[in-house]
Amino acid sequence: MDLGDRICTNLRTQKITVEDVSKKRSMDLRLLYGVAYGHSWFGKWGYKFCRGSFGVAEYNYNKVIEILSSLELDQIIQDFSNADQCRDIKQIIRHCRNMSETQLVTIKDLLRFMLTVKFNFVL
Fold first, then answer.
1. Measured between alpha carbons, how far is 24 from 120 in angstroms, rounded to an integer?
2. Contacting residues for 15 by C-beta, under 8 A, at least 6 apart
3. What does the pLDDT look like over 10-58, one tens digit per residue?
4. What is the tens place of the pLDDT at every residue in 54-101?
5. What sign for the dihedral angle of Cα 48, 51, 16, 112?
6. CA 45 – CA 88 distance, rounded (Å)
7. Does residue 75 contact residue 106 with C-beta atoms inside 8 Å?
8. Torsion over CA: 70, 73, 78, 83 (sign)
9. With contact defined as beta carbons under 8 Å apart, do 115 and 32 qualify?
10. Are 37 and 107 in contact (CB under 8 A)?
11. DSSP reduced 3-state for 70
C-alpha cells in the first residue's frame, strides 16, 4: 500500500475508488476481514468503504459485520447440529481452539486466529 499512498499524496487525492476482488481460497477477503477485524483488509492503512460493500449501504454493511462478528462458536455448533457438515465444523473449531493460546469464543475470534496462523489439517 505504500506505493498507493505515495501516488495519492503526490496527486493530492482525497477519495479513490477501488474494486476489491481479493480472495482467500474462494471467500471474499473483504468479508473475512470485516468479520475478523471490523474493517476491510485495506482498513489497516486507514482506508474505508464510502458506500458500503456488495451493493449494500455502509450502515447496513457495518451492522451485518457487527452481528456476524458476535456469533458464538458454541451456538454455531448447536445450530448446525443436524446439518451434514456439523462434524467438520466441530472438528475445525476444536482444532483451532486446541492450537490457540487465547480463548476462541466468537466467529470473530476464530477468523482472526485462522487468518493469522498458517496450518494444514485433514478433516
1. 15
2. 50
3. 877 766 666 666 666 666 677 788 899 888 777 777 776 666 566 777 7
4. 677 778 888 988 999 999 999 999 999 998 888 999 999 999 999 999
5. positive
6. 35
7. no
8. positive
9. yes
10. no
11. coil
